Amino acid sequence: MWNYFIFSLFLLFLQAESYKIQYNASNYFLDAKDKKNIKILFSDIEKPETHLSLYRVIELPNKLHVLLISDPRTQLSAASMDVGIGYYSDPDDIPGLAHFCEHILFMGSLKASTNINFFSYIKRHNGIYNASTRAEGTSYFFNIPSSYFELALDKFSSFFIAPLFSRSSVERAVHAVQSEFNLYKQSDSLRIQQIEKTLSSVDSPYNKFGIGNFQTLMVNPKNIGKDILEEVKTFYNTYYSSNLMKLVVASSESLDRLQELILKYFSEIPNKDIQRPVFTQKPFTDKTLGMQYWYKSSLNSIKMELTFSIEVQTNFRNTNPSEYFRYLIEHKSSDSLYLYLLEEGWIVSLTTCTENILFDLDFLRITLYLTPKGLAQYEEIIVAIFQYLKMLKDQGPQEWIFHELLRLGDMNFRFSPYIPSYKVISYLSMVMQKARSDYSDLLKFGFITKYSPENIINLLNSLHPDNYLLSISSNNKPSDWNLREHWLESEYKLESLPETLVQRSNNLPANNSFKLPKPNKYIPENYVIRPLSNEKVYKPYLEYTARFFRYWCKQDDTHSSPKTYLFLFFKIPNFSSTPIQKALINIYINILACNISEIKYYTEVAGSQVSIFPHKLGFQLFIFGYTDKLFVLYQDVLDAILEFEPTPFIFNLALKAVKDEIFPSLYDISTYLYTDGYWPSDEILSVLQKALAVGSPPENASLIIENSLKNIFSKQFYNPFYDFDARTSVLEEGNNFIFQLTRVNLEDLNSHIYYSLQIGEANNPKLLVLVNIIHLIISKISFDQLRTKEQLGYFLKVCYSQTLTMINYDIILTSERDPFYLEQRIIVYLYRLAAIIENITDEEFKDYIDSIIHKFSYKYENIFLEANFISSGIYNFDFSTMAIDVLKNLTKDDLKKFFYKYFYPDSPNRKKLSIHIRSGVLEEVSSSDLSLQRLYYYFKCNELEIPFDDLFTLAQSNPKLSNFEKSIQELLVKKYPDTDISIIVAQAFKYLENHYKELKQKALKNYNAVNILDPVVFKNSMKLSSVPPPLLSFEAYKKP
Q1: CA–CA distance from 226 to each of 4, 15, 216, 222, 946 (Å)?
Q2: Residue 867 per-residue DSSP state
Q3: Which UniProt keywords apply (predicted)?
């Protein structure tokens, strides 16, 4: 036994020495005395007046720069590490290596502080984690309740000190990248970007394929004799150095305590003192500029984008000429470019953005979504853009516009709503990379503070007709796409810009339709701020109630905000009785939004907001702004709504917008199947209004609102039943329903499943807290099992949904697989979940309880969140307190009984509804349905060798079965030219295809499910939940 013990110690010693050699630990680790030699770089970072957070930027002895945020209001702690290395640093022969490193890094560490891995620990305590790879950076992020922060921080730091890089994790990490790649293939915006990269200079890093896939990370390296695990270790050891990292941590802990934690856990990150790679080779050459490419889109929308190369804008962070330009070109006032193009019937929207590409280069993009008429006249649109730019150059920089932007910037920064630090730290860690060690304006990065006419003129001069690449995305023009992009296989056509367009753009006549905007009248002059109160009121009160109007009010006694949120809910009984009825109300809302577009734009610029959108049983008018101008804005909006006369163009534009939204959406279909309350369209004008004001409304606010609404609705018939919200269809115990649809879009390869378990009434706090615990457990393991291991699809969402009446638990998957197959895998997953529920330890159960108590103890961290809670229409303001009381007495036995009743597939009490949306191109049997293991051994038995990795790659790149069979036959013919391949391949595929069909038919026969053939009949056969009336009489909600 002692020999065994000594031998074990010897092995541990060898492992430690191996670790030191592998990571050059002896050169990089800090002595204890060095840990005191930290530098405080900044402690006086400018911050908004309403923010209570304290900030400090320090430099550790290993040159790691850290932003510490002590935030007394936050209930979650978080950390974000940004490494200044991205896919631009990929080796040319292994595209996607940086992305692969991001995935495998999170899969284990040699410095394991406990047996619980990072992911399990974060999920168990209701936290989240994520990571992303950019061109020149990689971000890693997590948050967690503060009481669990230190151990999470320890585990997080170990990824940057001693990552495990286990060989057993390689395949999982590669499959995760492959799943992401499959998702990218379905994204029009990413496909367009990849074409742009392909057209760029091969000498520029912008030309690189940064996503990676199974082919680039497994097959290609193997073919050239490289081990992907050794390659990623080399990449990590070369570039992951503390002097290239920026860390942000946020917690309710003091700055000194946070500094202690950072010193303790992050001082050992190796500092290799390397220089950050600088990339300067320009993407666009003279051959690229002056070209246009047409992308074959799978969407009905038409997108046009002009991409200009400009000097990097972080060089002008205080003058920000691109913000001056954006402010003018996106302006939606009369005499603007936007309004001109809109009234011509050419565009739906116009936006601009800048995107950093290289150390010294940005792209400035002007993006327009066009109408079919606009597509036919796209040259006219481009000429108009350059005419507007010419007007700006001729007028020259305007100092009054700078002062308006300065005033707006100061106002928006000074009174920016409090956003919990954990939500912004990932952004701040990226800003630290951009700031290049000047951290004084981290929170105000990019705000205009200085006037520089020269910088504005230089930017405008760079936006000339010889300095842009044009892209147009359409599904029907030009129809002769003759090129295919290599990685994402997008069809496109490349050609020179039309000569007529080039000539007209360089010889521009003046366009008298264009003028500079007028000053903004909605910018506040006074700031109404109520002092903080020691006697806080946590519930709203009903200040006024009448026959057709109720006014709820909640004074701001916590946030000291000069803003008020005003919600007006217009109830239109039975507003969505049919899809057509729902479309009509959406058309009406779109028309109203178009009519107030100029007001809406000016208010948004002035830090306010006006929105009209569907809400529950009607629509909502949402006005948020500075109290000083709120009711001026309110009256202007109401007048515009009352006085509008829709033009045929505006009507058709709204109609098209609604038509574009009508497709088999999982959310819409599930809401339709579950929700009652759809009635004939002739009742659409019967309305009831509800209003809510949160913030600092004037004393006579209810009178102002009531008088204005009386003028509109005094002649409308009021029915007391209009007070009731929609009810929900109630499934009976043992129900197992499937509703199937097929997508019309033949370009979309994805199918979808919405797997919903109906739990019970929403006003039952015990059900709600139990479903929260189950959700913590499911979210901890579902991604690893369903997405990474089983490769069912990259998009996976697990969540519970709570209406006013019912609680449901939903599992949503987007995949190229058959939805019925996905449903069977979800059932297997639920069976496995039972074993996990059975084996929960007392410690784990306590952690779950503490996490949910923390959730229900949540304090609203800004006035907007508080207002949204009140406007939900759930008037049980003490529900969280009731839920916490239930949690304190909950047992593991309660959890097990709950799971076996509502989740376990064999439960006679379980109530399930699933929606299957099949892709229009999904075959009865696709490549992914075949057993690749059986195929591999079948060929091997016939003395035909195909590496399994090659089979996997061919299946992934050829989802259509006939194409997969053809590609395998071509591969084998080349490898075995003297063998009759065709018969062997045909027999293999015929056998496996029939085998899958037999398995599926057997599963269908044994699966006791009822298909919903007619949703109307289904809904009429369902019982309805009880009406959710207010918990108390409305009189009880009035202020004492």
Answers
A1: 37, 25, 12, 5, 19
A2: H
A3: Hydrolase, Metal-binding, Metalloprotease, Protease, Signal, Zinc
Domain presence at residue 1023: no
pLDDT in tens, 766-781: 998 999 999 988 987 8
Confidence of residue 619 (pLDDT cuts 50, 70, 90): confident
Asked whether residue 808 falls in the same domain as residue 836, the answer is yes
pLDDT per residue over 40-53, tens digit each? 998 888 888 878 89
Both 851 and 875 in one domain: the answer is: yes
List the structure tokens of 974. Answer: 């080349």
Do 67 and 117 fall within a single domain?
yes
What element of type H or E holds 936?
helix 932-941
Domain co-membership, 170 together with 59 = yes
Residue 609, burial from CB neighbour count under 10 angstroms (0-12, 13-18, 19+): middle
Which pairs from 645-651 meet CB under 8 Å and 24+ separation? 646/591, 646/595, 649/343, 649/345, 650/591, 650/594, 650/595, 651/587, 651/591
Evaluate whether residue 240 is within a structural domain: yes
d(CA 725, CA 727): 7
Structure tokens at 262: 């950072």
Strand pairing report for 468-474 and 291-296:
parallel
Assess whether 108 and 215 both reside in one domain: yes
pLDDT value of position 483: 96
Q: Are 399 and 451 in contact (CB under 8 A)?
A: yes
Within a domain: 316: yes
Residue 10 lies in a domain: no
Q: Return the SS3 of 667.
A: helix
Summary mean pLDDT of the chain = 82
Q: Which of 408, 307, 406, 403 is nearest to 362 (CA)?
A: 307
Which residue range is the domain that position 315 belongs to? Answer: 291-419+437-506
Q: Give pLDDT, residue 746.
A: 60
Per the structure, how many domains does the chain have?
A: 5
Residue 721's identity, in one-letter code, is F
Q: Tell whether omega for the bond before 417 is within 30 degrees of 0, i.e. cis.
A: no
| Least confident residue range of 185-199, 478-492, 983-997 | 983-997
Q: What DSSP designation does 1038 have?
A: B
pLDDT band at 381; cut points 50, 70, 90: very high
**Looking at the structure, do residues 942 and 971 belong to the same domain, yes or no?**
yes
What tens digit of pLDDT does each residue of 451-471 get?
A: 999 999 999 999 999 999 999
CA angle 397, 402, 405 (to 5 degrees): 140
Bridge partners of 129, per DSSP, are 142
Query: Which residues have a Cβ under 8 Å from the Cβ of 986 and sit 6 or more positions away?
Result: 965
Single-letter amino acid code for the residue at 913: L
Compute the chain's Rg from CA coordinates. 31
Kindly state whether residues 470 and 362 are assigned to the same domain.
yes
Percent of the chain at pLDDT > 90 equals 42
Structure token digits, residue 1029 = 């009336």
Provide the residue type at 467 as one letter.
Answer: N
- Tens digits of residue pLDDT in 282-305: 999 888 899 999 999 988 889 999
- In DSSP notation, 445-473 reads TT---S--HHHHHHHHHH--TTSEEEEEE
Q: Per mean pLDDT, which range of 75-89, 137-151, 671-685, 831-845 is the poorest?
A: 671-685
CA 441 to chain centre: 27
**d(Cα 458, Cα 178) in Å, to the nearest integer?**
43
Amino acid at 750: N
pLDDT band at 572 (very low <50, low <70, confident <90, very high): low
Where does residue 48 rank: exposed (0-12), middle (13-18), buried (19+ CB within 10 A)?
middle
Q: Confidence band (pLDDT; 50, 70, 90) for 7?
A: very low
571 and 680 belong to one structural domain: yes
CATH at residue 676: 3.30.830.10
Q: What is the amino acid identity at position 770?
A: L
- Is 806 in a helix, a strand, or coil? strand
What pLDDT is recorded for position 31? 45
Q: End-to-end alpha-carbon separation of the chain, Å?
A: 78
